[in-house]
């Protein structure tokens, strides 16, 4: 029974991980100049009012940190979640842990006006504690690209940088439009996204993931779009579905074979089209998994890869 | 010739407490030595020390050989032990438990059983009257049957010296007599001896040839049974008139005697 | 009159072997991708006869994906089951198992430390995790049993389970600490702890087979001693068993078995609990029959569990530990109920 409990804990951890990596969204009512009170409705439909744009923020999700930096508002960040790692400056910000280890006392001590977090990252009791300490909690949890735009605008409102937010969104849209132009060329191509390598059990990104959405945008087909979210799938199925391209987001730590080399050396995979052609892309920086402006960068990398690998 | 068992200045300390202090005695072939004394006198601890179950100081010699230095297998060939209660975890059959007694003669995997082993097991089963129940699971046995199973195991082990730690403590009076009679019969063959811790003075008197009387770990008296079990020795140790109480017990015994013998006859023959 | 009780009963092994081979064949023939039986037979016979393989997916799927995995699963099941049976005998406790005692968790902790800090003792993949897993399995066993003996010399069921639960909790918090120290590897660690025999290679199978051969040999040679322990530790000492040496040998062997299994397949709970129990119901408690039969039983059980894990949610896979835990929890309650009732 202790093992079951452990299993549950592991599943929770995995779930947390996913929410950490997937994190944010919202809607923006009006808010025009940086001195007036700001009222926003977050993605849980909660209305939050600030007397002025936030100058001290704690962000628990990596994507929110990225958005803040993209809006040139990185200086508002006084605390971050454990797994926030981009851009590099964010690592200098105090970590308040993540998930159920989140250090509520430490957050309160940092005296932020706003805590930004993903849906379900904290329980109601913790939220109540934070609100009692006068910290506004804003939930920001984008599940698709449209919601990423919303979350960027929402955060723009919060820090009084609506214009910058609009510019960032416009930039992203422009990039997506550009890469989508060649979609027709990829119409018969299949891509296999690998999240965890064979050694630890094959995990892929199925439907309802950013990888899937961007893949579709580029006109190619995610060969595991029949499963939902991140899922462990059968090695046999990968061989049978014979993807034209493989994209791996497995982390590389500098020793042993690189993710590409490891996939190329797998026994029995030598007849997979992607392996035969060496068409394997390794993404090391969460470009395709984090609901943040860099999704555009990821889309461009994938686009270039699909074109260039031919 | 050396005595079969020679215990020299045996002491067991637990923390600051002397459980047994400077216990010395010898056991010769044919002897049945009883270690007696009230609760907490250190009887069972002394026996555990002899079987190497607890740490001790002093020496325990078996025919001049230091028991502490014997290999476990050799020790088991010299001395067999029967304790008071057994809880077996799994449904072994009576015969499987008895056959374990032969371990000392062929340990290891490729121990093809010899005819000696089979003979010893059959003899032990017959002697204890458990032959008919050889296929029965030990989990389904009564207390008396279980004790006879382990008695058969120790008989199959064919030791020269039998050490008993209150072997009949939780058995009915009839079965106590039965087990003791079986041991007495076993003792009749030459080259054998018994040392036992027994609570019940009537059994001590009925079966013992020699005795050691302990109190708080100290030896009060040692020698032939009649020299040790005197009113002068016993009354201060037990704080009561032991002789009067025993007379009463023994008369009760006499009445039960026929019944007990009949049961033994039935079971064995 | 003379009935050779603990003689090897060949018909039993014939039966076990037959069932095992049938399940093994089933697991090679059935999988996520549907391959016709005739093609499977062709691929395997060609491989055995060193004939050229036909075009298509079948050779790759059967020879490089399914067969090594099925072999690893069978060997892991056999090893875990043997380890469980040996521990249950040694401790005279039918609920003793790597997972209930917390030994598997301990081994997993060792492996996680190896992953988190990138410990590699040589170029051999898995060597780091394997050695750490074995060391931690042994350390865990010593801690757990040391504590148990101090608290309750008779090692009663309740004590053992309580200590196992507490130890597992301790290990999981230790694991959380490790994860905090190695935040960048959290993803790898998470996926690893879920347990998976995907990606098993023939090398893994060879390592498992070698370890099982050695450890299995040692344990089978200790069958008589384990019988004596199963009757009672004091009784074992009285009939001449070298109690201390036997304990040490069995504990080290069991640790190696569990450590190797955990490092290759992650923690797969309850295999060592479920199969010896079932096998004991068929062949009885005598370890001379129980241990070899447990090898077959464990292999068959885990093969079937893995088959369910592979095909139930096709194309997705279930972690194999989820399947074994589901069955194991039920059997655990059943045994616990029975032992309590018996007391």
Written overview of the protein:
Chain A is an alpha/beta fold and 310 residues long. Chain A contains 11 helices and 13 strands. In chain A, strand 8 and strand 9 form a beta hairpin. In chain A, helix 5 runs antiparallel to helix 6 and helix 6 packs parallel to helix 11. The longest helix of chain A has 21 residues. In chain A, 53% of the residues are buried. The N terminus of chain A is likely disordered. With 269 residues, chain B is of the alpha/beta class. Chain B has 2 domains: 229 residues, P-loop containing nucleotide triphosphate hydrolases (Rossmann fold), CATH 3.40.50.300; 31 residues. Chain B contains 10 helices and 10 strands. In chain B, a hairpin with a 2-residue loop joins strand 1 and strand 2. In chain B, helix 6 packs across helix 10. Chain B is globular, with a radius of gyration of 19 Å. The N and C termini of chain B lie far apart (38 Å). The C terminus of chain B is likely disordered. Chain C has 343 residues and is mostly helical. Chain C has a domain of 181 residues: Orthogonal Bundle (ABC transporter involved in vitamin B12 uptake, BtuC), CATH 1.10.3470. Chain C is globular and about 65 Å long. The two termini of chain C are 35 Å apart. Chains in contact: A-C, B-C. At the A-C interface, helix 1 and helix 8 of A face helix 3, helix 7, helix 8 and helix 15 of C.
**Structural class from helices and strands of chain A?**
alpha/beta
Largest sheet of chain B: 6 strands, mixed
Low-confidence stretches of chain A: 1-5, 8-33
How many helices of chain B?
10
Average pLDDT figure of chain B:
85
What percent of residues of chain A are in strands? 15-25%
The count of strands of chain A amounts to 13
Corresponding CATH architecture of the largest domain in chain B: 3-Layer(aba) Sandwich
Helix content of chain A: 25-40%
Number of strands of chain B: 10
Order of helices and strands of chain B: EEEHEEHEHHHEHEHEEHHH
Q: What's the quaternary structure here? A: heterotrimer
**Greatest contact between two chains:** A-C, 48 and 58 residues
Tell me the major beta sheet of chain A: 6 strands, mixed
- Residue-averaged pLDDT of chain A: 83
Shape of chain B: globular
Q: Tell me the span between the first and last alpha carbons of chain B.
A: 38 Å
Could you state the order of secondary-structure elements of chain A as H and E? HEEEEHEHEHEHHEEHEEHEHHEH
Helix segment count of chain A?
11
């Amino acid at each position: 029974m202790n093992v079951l409990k452990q299993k549950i804990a592991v599943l929770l951890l995995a779930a947390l991980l996913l929410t950490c990596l997937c994190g944010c969204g919202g809607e923006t009512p009006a808010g025009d100049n940086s001195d007036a009170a700001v009222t926003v409705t977050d993605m849980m439909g909660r209305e939050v009012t600030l007397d002025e744009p936030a100058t001290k923020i704690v962000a628990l999700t990596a994507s929110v940190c990225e958005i803040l930096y993209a809006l040139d508002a990185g200086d508002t960040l006084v605390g971050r979640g454990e797994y926030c790692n981009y851009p590099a400056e964010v690592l200098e910000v105090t970590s308040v842990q993540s998930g159920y280890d989140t250090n509520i006392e430490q957050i309160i001590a940092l005296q932020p006006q706003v805590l930004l977090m993903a849906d379900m990252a904290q329980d109601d009791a913790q939220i109540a504690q934070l609100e009692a300490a006068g910290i506004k909690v804003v939930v920001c949890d984008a599940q698709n690209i449209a919601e990423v735009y919303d979350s960027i605008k929402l955060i723009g409102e919060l820090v009084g940088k609506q214009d910058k937010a609009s510019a960032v969104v416009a930039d992203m849209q422009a990039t997506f439009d550009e890469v989508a132009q060649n979609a027709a060329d990829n119409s018969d191509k299949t891509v296999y996204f690998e999240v965890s390598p064979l050694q630890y059990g094959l995990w892929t990104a199925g439907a309802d993931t950013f990888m899937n959405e961007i893949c579709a945008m580029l006109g190619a087909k995610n060969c595991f779009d029949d499963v939902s979210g991140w899922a462990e799938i059968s090695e046999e199925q990968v061989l049978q579905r014979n993807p034209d391209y493989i994209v791996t987001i497995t982390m590389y730590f500098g020793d042993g074979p690189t993710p590409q080399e490891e996939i190329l050396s797998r026994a029995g995979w030598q007849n997979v089209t992607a392996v035969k052609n060496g068409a394997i892309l390794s993404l090391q920086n969460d470009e395709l998994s984090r609901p943040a402006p860099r999704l555009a960068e990821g889309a461009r990398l994938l686009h270039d890869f699909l074109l260039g690998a031919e | 010739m050396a005595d079969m068992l020679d215990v020299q200045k045996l002491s067991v300390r637990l923390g600051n407490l002397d459980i047994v202090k400077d216990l010395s005695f010898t056991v010769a072939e044919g002897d049945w030595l009883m270690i007696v004394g009230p609760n907490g006198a250190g009887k069972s601890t002394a026996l555990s020390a002899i079987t190497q179950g607890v740490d001790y100081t002093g020496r325990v010699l078996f025919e001049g050989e230091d028991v502490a230095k014997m290999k476990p297998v050799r020790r088991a060939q010299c001395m067999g032990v029967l304790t008071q209660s057994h809880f077996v975890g799994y449904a072994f059959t009576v015969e499987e438990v008895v056959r374990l007694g032969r371990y000392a003669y062929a340990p290891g995997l490729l121990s093809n059983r010899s005819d000696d082993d089979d003979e010893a097991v059959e003899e032990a089963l017959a002697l204890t009257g458990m032959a008919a129940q050889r296929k029965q699971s030990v989990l389904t046995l009564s207390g008396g049957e279980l004790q006879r199973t382990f008695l058969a195991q120790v008989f199959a082990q064919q030791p020269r010296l039998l050490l008993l730690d209150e072997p009949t403590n939780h058995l009915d009076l009839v079965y106590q007599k039965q087990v003791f009679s079986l041991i007495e019969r076993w003792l009749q063959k030459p080259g054998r001896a018994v040392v036992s811790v027994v609570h019940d003075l009537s059994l001590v008197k009925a079966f013992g040839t020699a005795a050691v009387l302990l109190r708080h770990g100290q030896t009060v008296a040692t020698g032939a049974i009649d020299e040790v079990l005197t009113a002068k020795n016993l009354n201060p140790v037990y704080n009561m008139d032991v002789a009067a109480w025993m007379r009463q017990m023994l008369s009760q015994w006499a009445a039960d005697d026929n019944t007990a013998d009949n049961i033994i006859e039935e079971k064995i023959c | 009159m003379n009935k050779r009780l603990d003689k090897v009963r060949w018909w039993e092994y014939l039966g076990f072997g037959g069932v095992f081979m049938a399940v093994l064949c089933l697991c090679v023939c059935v999988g996520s991708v549907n391959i016709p039986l005739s093609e499977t037979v062709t691929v395997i016979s060609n491989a055995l006869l060193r004939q050229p393989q036909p075009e298509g997916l079948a050779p790759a799927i059967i020879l490089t994906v399914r067969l090594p995995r099925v072999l690893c699963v069978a060997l892991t099941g056999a090893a875990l089951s043997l380890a469980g049976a040996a521990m249950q005998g040694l401790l005279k406790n039918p609920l003793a198992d790597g997972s209930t005692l917390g030994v598997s968790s301990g081994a997993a902790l060792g492996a996680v430390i190896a992953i988190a800090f990138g410990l590699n003792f040589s170029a051999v993949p898995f060597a780091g995790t394997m050695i750490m897993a074995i060391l931690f399995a042994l350390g865990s066993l010593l801690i757990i049993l040391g504590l148990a003996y101090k608290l309750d010399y008779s090692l009663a069921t309740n004590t053992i389970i309580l200590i196992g639960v507490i130890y597992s909790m301790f290990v999981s918090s230790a694991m959380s600490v490790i994860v905090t120290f190695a935040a960048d590897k959290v993803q790898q660690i998470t996926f690893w702890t879920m347990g998976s025999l995907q990606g098993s290679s023939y090398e893994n199978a060879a390592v498992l087979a070698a370890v099982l051969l050695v450890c299995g040999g040692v344990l089978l040679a200790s069958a008589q001693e384990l019988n004596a322990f199963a009757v009672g530790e004091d009784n074992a000492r009285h009939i001449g068993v070298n109690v201390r040496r036997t304990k040490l040998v069995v504990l080290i062997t069991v640790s190696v078995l569990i450590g190797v299994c955990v490092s290759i397949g992650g923690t797969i709970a309850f295999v060592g609990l479920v199969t010896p129990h079932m096998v004991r119901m068929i062949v009885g408690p005598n370890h001379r029959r129980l241990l070899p039969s447990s090898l077959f039983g464990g292999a068959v059980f885990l093969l079937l569990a893995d088959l369910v894990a592979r095909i139930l949610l096709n194309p997705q896979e279930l972690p194999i530990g989820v399947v074994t835990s589901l069955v194991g929890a039920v059997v655990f309650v059943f045994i616990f109920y029975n032992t309590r009732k018996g007391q």
